[in-house]
Amino acid sequence: MLPGGHEVEVAVDEDDVAVWRDMQLKGYGIPPVAFGTRGKGSKGDLCTGKIGTLENKRRRHLTLPEFYYLMAMDNVLPAGELLLQDLWNRLGSAAFTRTFVIYQHFRRRGWIPRPGLNYGAHYVLYRGSAEAFHSEYIVYVQRDGEVSSWNSIQSHTRIAADAKKTVLLCTVTSKRSPDDTATPRNVRSTVNPTLTASDEGLTSGTYSFFGIQYTIEAVAIRFWDASIAGERQLYTFQLQPVLPKNIKSAKRKGNIQQLPKR
Question: A single Gene Ontology molecular function, please (predicted)?
Answer without folding.
Answer: tRNA-intron lyase activity
